[in-house]
Every structure is written in structure tokens, then in C-alpha cells.
Amino acid sequence: MMIRRVLVTAALLFVAVEGFGQNEITGRWQTMNVPNGPWIIDLQVNGTQVTGNVRQGATGEPVAIYFGSIEGNKVRFKVNSPDGDRIVTFTGTITRAQIGFARAVDIRPGGARGDTGIFGANAVSYFAATRAQ
After folding, report:
1. How distant, in Å, are the alpha carbons of 17, 28, 58, 65, 78 from that of 44?
2. pLDDT of 63-117, one tens digit each?
3. Distance from first CA to last CA of the chain, Å, rounded?
4. Structural domains of the chain ordered from first start
């Protein structure tokens, strides 16, 4: 009986985390503890597809997300830098308090590295975003 109770509890917790990731990340996320911040990420979820935009600073030009997906508590998407020189891939792990992101930057042939902002190759590789108020 005890094993059954543990298995049921674990299954419910798994469903709760799965459900949170799938349904509750829609909205604005941001971080203040990065160079050239805040970095702002607006996310919309439709099934397993993620769309939205990314911007640097409150007045930065929004850049569209593409190839966005969500599976369980993992989210992944790409954006092009505003100058078109870089492709930035974001891979996030969702918790109730934040999304922990890893960023990878591919520089197109002949492209510039960029600065330390959200679209630059010289920026931090990992950061956490929290829901904006």
C-alpha cells in the first residue's frame, strides 16, 4: 500500500510539473542581472509550439522567436540578432519560480560577434528569467 501511495504521489507531482511547463509560461519573463539588461522574453504557447519575441531592454526592438517548442518542463527557441549576423538558441528549464536559460550563439559567415547583450556572442551563456510584474 505504501509503494502505491508513493507512486501515485510521484505521478501527480510529475503531472503538475508537466502541466506547469505546458500551460503557465505564456507571458513576459525578464532578468535584471545581465549586461545591457533587462532582457525581456515574451512567450506564447499553443500546444507544443512556442512563439513570441525577445528584446534587449524595455525599449529594445522585439525580435520574433522561431523554431520554438516545449516538452514537459523544457522550452527551446531561436532568434536572429537584429543585424542578422547571429542566430541565438535558447534552451530553458522551467520551474515555478523561474526559467533557467542556456544560450548558444552561431555567427553567420562574415558576421560580427556582437556585444554582451542578449543577441551578442560575448554575453553570458546562462541566466535565469522570472515572471515580470
Report:
1. 18, 9, 19, 10, 14
2. 999 999 999 999 999 999 999 999 999 999 999 899 999 999 999 999 999 999 9
3. 44
4. 2-131 (2.40.128.30)
What's the rounded Cα separation, in Å, for the pair 54 and 31?
12
Q: Is the dihedral of CA 119, 101, 31, 45 positive or negative?
A: positive
Whether the full predicted model's pTM is greater than 0.85, yes or no, is: no
Count of residues in the chain: 133
Cβ–Cβ under 8 Å, residues 75 and 68: yes
Is 86:111 a contact under the CB 8 Å cutoff?
A: yes
